[in-house]
Sequence to fold (460 residues):
Amino acid sequence: MSDSSTSTLVAQLRSLVRTAAAGERLPSSRELIERYRVGPGTVSRAIALLAAEGIVVTRPGSGTYVAKKPSGAGEPLDTAWQTVALTDRSVDTTSLTGALGPAPEDAILLDGGYPHRSLQATRFLAAALARAGRRPDAWDRAPAAGLTALRSVFAGPAGASPDDVLITAGGQSGLSMAFRAIAAPGSPVLVESPTYPGALAAARAAGLRPVPVPLDGDGVRPDLLAEAFAMTGARLFYCQPTFHNPTGTVLAAERRTRVLDVARAAGAFVLEDDFARHLSHGATTPRPLITDDRDGTVVHLTSVTKASAPSLRIGALIARGPVLDRMKAIRQVDDFFVARPLQEAALELLSAPSWERHVRRLGAELGERCAKAAAALAAKCPEWTIARLPTGGLHLWVRLPAGSDPNALARAARERGVVVGAGERFFATEPAGPFLRLSFAAAADIAELTEGIRRLDPSV
Fold:
């Protein structure tokens, strides 16, 4: 019998159980077969599913009975005491989801942090996972720092040793580990303004106080960074030097050394989030900051998730000195190690010739989408401005006319079936103006992308 027959019978038996008293015997298997016109296999599977859920109890030789309901079942729980016990240590996730919450299923996505499924490496990843799964040690315990071969893959672009690498469960996990390892609760952490909302959420969850440092078209301003270090006494600066989220900015070559010098003079770390290394639109991607670091100032964070698929939660933290030891200790306390099958699959993916082909194809498609989106915005919303067309990444950072309300515009867009990101959540404090972040990667194709932008036109 089909799974649908089993599901149908389960639903019918649920209705029967709801009206029965605890301990009441259900009809026999023969009676159920005749009443619902199903086969004995379907009855056996349905009873087994209900028993696994604790809804019924089977007694061999006697029959199947309605299970006793847990004490207080159906009654609302009084959890008011938890408010007192938990005190004020809430974790704010509104910067991750936005004030309007998750996107409706049928909406055109012009917001989001991942490329559309059609741009993901799912076919290559499926093959890599299958190959990894055939290894005899695929389900063995992995080293706390990660597989040596995978650490070597991440070490190369950073000019580091595999011993300097700690494999993480994606970029967000790496951010949380680094923030907790480097700065004590209550400490300030300098961040670019605007910046990635997930970093703000992770920093605040670690008890840190984000302090904004403005950036311009060439990245963070070293003069203001030095002033912020002096004013706050911070010992950590979080930045995205390459294809910055949300602006797409690349830190200018002449500022790279100055940023490191400023941090070194302050006795501070630079947490370099290199999430977009594989998202270039065809231009040469600058070397990571860590390649110019000879004093252990830079803690480098990278990930393959954005360029592959959301559930390939594999990234790496690269550092030298005691800070790496501390992050390794946090890893062991948190979860011992990253799941070995995912590490093996990532290693298979990154080592295959198809990976470089995928990255080139992805970059070309992102570049085309970026250009099409910018052209559509210029045509449909000419009063909106883009300071500089990004050469990598997934987003356009759009300034709205003075006096605009980005949140109201985002709400109106949803009513037209389009999801956009209001800019306020990208700022640690007061926003520097009215902005929207528009993703050109989340839509199904260019036609859907341009249709979504067309619907943003107030005159439509």
Notes: The longest strand covers residues 209-216. The chain is about 40% helix and 15% strand. Residues 145 and 166 are 5 Å apart (CA to CA). The radius of gyration is 27 Å.
